[in-house]
Write a structure and sequence with these properties.
alpha/beta, 6% strand, 7 strands, Fumarate Reductase Iron-sulfur Protein, Chain B, domain 2
């Protein structure tokens, strides 16, 4: 028995009804650039969505495969003259077709169950740290242990910013010396890049008396794979944990974008809507916060930096300036061609569609190499996983680092 909501499909059909098939989306879609077929583009997916909503085609596994083959990077929405929200529509169609198929796969239910428990996440972080220090990385499948090359089906079950709805604007909260600033520990940062997370906390502690409440997963893996109930439960737990904070800082673009949208997801809940709105308004990206407090990098180097914009930061939160200004203050900054083009990771996309993701990443690698930068930085552990692969493929021409590690 399934619990598919037909209203989701009709809602998606209405979302894409404004598409006039102009094709403006084609040149900016990384997947159309790889495959070159209509079904990979926003225009093609909009047509399929309309056909599904109108009953013109059946809701088959093939239809689900087509809407799953999307980075949800919002590049098409940015250039669309009518601002057709293809990304939002794909999330609703995915949910509907997944529900028809009986729910999310076992691997996603497992991931969701594990990430609900911070004690398990902490234990896994410790275990991975021991393996790194013991040089026993080969015991873990697919290179999961090394921080610089970490990649994992377990931790990358995320979607792009589309799963969160509309753009979250930068925080309007004013930071003062009396502000109670709290750090949000992201699962990906803690488990896969603990060194970078430690650098983030050290920097934050140099600007304020940092608070570190016991938070749980931001819930994005659950939201992205049909576990909406778990997502909302985690949202409420995090709202309670940070109720006393004035500012909530995240060094993970995916976590930050998710937390900034909690107010919208609980807007119809009379008990939680006001608390959720207050919570979301307090969330800041790591670089957003540092810009507000006038942070100066610890030292100036001769290194050449370039920067990759995480989709969850550039199109999920509209933040582009602060990370670049910090890098300019830390060394010599060179802008990369296509810096805001998705790296091909897009959560679990690079695992489900490795060939397409590898082609997208190869273009990113070439763009990085053209800058002649020694370090490419970013603010998302998912992107960092991809960029580390590119660094390895470059033969050591550059390194991939979280921005906290160079400022």
């Amino acid at each position: 028995m399934n619990h598919a909501d037909p209203e989701l499909l009709q809602k998606a059909g209405k979302m894409v009804s404004g598409c006039d098939r102009c094709g403006t989306c084609l040149p900016v879609c990384p997947l159309f650039g790889v495959r070159g077929i209509e079904a990979t583009s926003a225009r093609g997916k909009n047509a399929i969505t309309r056909a599904l909503a109108d009953g013109g085609i059946e809701p088959t596994k093939e239809a689900l495969d087509i809407v799953n083959f999307c980075l949800l990077c919002r590049a098409c929405v940015d250039v669309c003259p009518a601002k057709v929200p293809t990304d939002d529509a794909m999330v609703d169609v995915r949910q509907h077709l997944t529900d028809l198929a009986g729910g999310p796969g076992a691997q996603y239910r497992f991931v969701g169950s594990v990430l609900k428990h911070p004690a398990i996440v902490k234990a896994a972080s410790i275990a991975l740290s021991i393996l790194r220090r013991s040089h026993l990385n080969d015991l873990i499948p697919y290179g999961m242990a090394p921080e610089e090359y970490a990649r994992s089906r377990f931790l990358n079950a995320f979607a792009g910013p589309a799963s969160l709805g509309r753009l979250a604007t930068p925080s309007e909260v004013t930071v003062t010396a009396q502000s109670k600033v709290a750090y949000f520990r992201g699962c990906g940062m803690e488990m896969m890049f603990p060194g970078a997370a430690a650098e983030s906390r050290a920097i934050l502690k140099s600007t304020t008396r940092l608070r570190e409440p016991q938070n749980v997963c931001c819930g994005l893996p659950h939201l992205a794979h049909g576990l909406r109930g778990d997502f909302l439960d985690l949202a409420r737990r995090n709202i309670r944990a940070f109720e006393e904070a004035d500012v909530i800082v995240s060094d993970c673009a995916s976590c930050g974008s998710t937390l900034k949208h909690l107010g919208a997801f609980l807007a119809d809940d009379p008990v939680w809507k006001d608390r959720a709105a207050v919570f979301s308004a307090k969330v800041m990206d790591f670089t957003e916060y540092l810009a507000k407090v006038g942070y100066e990098p610890r030292q100036k180097t001769d290194a050449v930096f370039t920067y990759h914009d995480p989709c969850h930061l550039v199109r999920g939160q509209g933040i582009t300036g602060p990370p670049r200004e910090l890098l300019k203050a830390a060394g010599r900054f060179v802008e990369m061609k296509g810096s805001d083009v998705c790296c091909g990771g897009a959560g679990s996309f690079h695992i489900d569609y490795p060939d397409a993701a590898a082609q997208i990443l190869d273009r990113k690698r070439k763009n990085i190499e053209e800058t002649e930068a020694s370090v490419v930085t970013t603010g998302c552990p998912g992107c960092l996983i991809q960029l580390a692969k590119a660094a390895k493929a470059s033969g050591g021409k550059f390194k991939a680092m979280h921005i906290s590690q160079v400022i």
